[in-house]
Amino acid sequence: MAKEVIRYNRSQRHLNTSWLLWTIFLVCIVIPPLILIAVYHTELSMFVSSTVASWLKPILGENNVSIVASDFLGDLTGIYSIKLDNNLPTSLFAFYNLIGSIVLIAILVARIKKKSVTAFFFMMLAVVHFVSSMYFWLAGDFFPYTIHTFSDLYIKQQVSIWISMVAFGGFIYTFTGSTRFRDKFLFFAVTLGYSFIFGVIRYFVFLVILTKTSVIYMGVMFFILGPLFDFLYLVGIYVLYIYVSMRKLSNVKELDKWTWL
């Protein structure tokens, strides 16, 4: 007996296109924050730096924390970041970190053979830290970067990430997944809110670690826990968005949202 409707995820169907919904969402929800961040990124960097500086002063001392300006996009605009005293590791401290990273790599090799994603992520951390520890053990005095260099780069990088989050997040939430405006707005707001809060807290934590320990951890912070980590949580939120969308669209009441081929 033939079925009138085949409701399988792999059946030949696609969502009905709503150009009106896409246009309204782009114009009213995506473009305004994109313009605001692009135009007021200097003020945004000042707000972030002032907030983090107020958290750092009770820990590092009032006179050890300051906010300075630097050029951004050439001479077109400026950005504010926190300036702290530099802290290079001793050769002994670098050696201890080198041994620790070697031990961690040895432990994780067995886990990677079992195809553990978590083990692979920590392996990347361990390998980058091994290279960093080796450098500081052999030639730490020649390290060209300071905590202030990292702080300045972090703020510039974070502003770029926030602009990218609005652009990429706005694109994928507009043209994919749920046909409901509410769902698109909710996940878009969660993505931007999480990105901003996480970026500010991470800035604070990174500066505390670098100041209290040393710049030996700068490599891990930049290469693994920086933009790569932002990309990972963006993908994670998007996967959740698609999962929720498909659960709702698989409901019998939502069959009118599909065009069957």
Topology:
Layout: E1 13-15, H1 19-39, H2 41-60, E2 66-72, E3 77-83, H3 91-113, H4 117-139, H5 147-175, H6 181-212, H7 218-223, H8 227-249, E4 258-260
Antiparallel strand pairs: 1-4, 2-3
Helix pairs in contact: 1-5, 2-6, 3-4, 5-6, 5-8, 6-8
Describe this structure in words.
This protein is mainly alpha-helical and 261 residues long. It has a domain at 89-142. The protein has helices at residues 19-39, 41-60, 91-113, 117-139, 147-175, 181-212, 218-223, 227-249; strands spanning 13-15, 66-72, 77-83, 258-260. Helix 5 (147-175) runs parallel beside helix 8. The longest helix has 32 residues, at 181-212. The protein starts with 12 loop residues before the first strand and ends with a strand.
Summary of the model, kept short:
Mean pLDDT is 87; it is low at 6-10. The protein is mostly helical.
Mean pLDDT: 87
Unreliable spans are 6-10
Question: Order of strands in the sheet with the most strands?
Answer: 1-4
Task: Give the N-terminus to C-terminus distance in angstroms.
Answer: 20 Å
* SSE run: EHHEEHHHHHHE
User: Shape from CA axes?
Assistant: flat
Alpha-beta content class: mainly alpha
Number of strands: 4
Rg over CA atoms, rounded to whole Å, is 23 Å
List keywords for this structure.
single chain; 261 residues; mainly alpha; 8 helices; 4 strands
